[in-house]
Amino acid sequence: MLDFSTMIYRVPALLFAISIHEYAHAQCAENMGDPTPRYLGRLTFNPFAHLDILGAILLVICGFGWAKPVAINPNNFRNRREGMIKVSLAGPAANLFLCFLAALTSVLLAKFGLLSVGVTKFLLWMQLYNVWFAFFNLIPIPPLDGSKLLAELLPPKQAYQFENFVGQYGFYILIALVFTGIIGMIINPLAQMYMTLVSAILGIFF
Q1: What is the C-alpha to C-alpha distance for residues 9 and 13, in angstroms, rounded to an integer?
Q2: Smallest Cα–Cα separation from 160: which of 137, 139, 144, 142?
Q3: What is the pLDDT, as a whole number, of residue 64?
């Protein structure tokens, strides 16, 4: 059952995760020579510019969801393949960095005795949402970032066949994976590995 008492911490954490993810895509596209996200108003940290209502609801309820994809024009990239790979990785990478930053902030505040219960809960949800959002988006099913990476790594013929077949049913496949719990079986071990790595790195310095 959904615990509404945690919404005061979960909603801001969710909006941070969505904003940093989509802004990273937009900024990377801009850096690679494509101004499309800027023209469409996506080069911003404003979460309402990136929010997909259904994806946000699923992320709150199930822990897995998505934001409104950033439109890009790969023809504007100085190097199309490099641009697609970097833009696709930018969002998940930004989420993993924000997860690390939240963990670091928690450790520093605790060290100086400034960590309250509310801040602890918020920073915990920041870590959880960002690490889940990162690995969820790396799943190679359209329209997630992982499918765009796979399209660039596969030979052109196989990439076309994959997109043509899986692309038609990507949304339904994702919904099925979420509600059957298979997504959790895929992502939870990866998230735990990353959080263990973060703890180990912070443990060296603190």
Answers
A1: 6
A2: 142
A3: 62
pLDDT of residue 1: 47
Single out the residue of 41, 62, 199 nearest to residue 129, CA to CA: 62
Show the tokens assigned to 129.
């949402």
**Structure tokens of 55?**
């994806």
State how far the Cα of 98 lies from the Cα of 90, in Å rounded to an integer: 12
Instruction: Check if 82 is active-site.
Output: no
Catalytic residue among 22, 30, 82, 163: 22
Tell me how far apart the alpha carbons of residues 94 and 97 are, in angstroms, rounded to a whole number. Answer: 5
Phi and psi at residue 120, to the nearest 5°: -60, -45
- Angle between helix 117-137 and 7-31 (nearest 10): 40
pLDDT over 60 (residue 20): yes
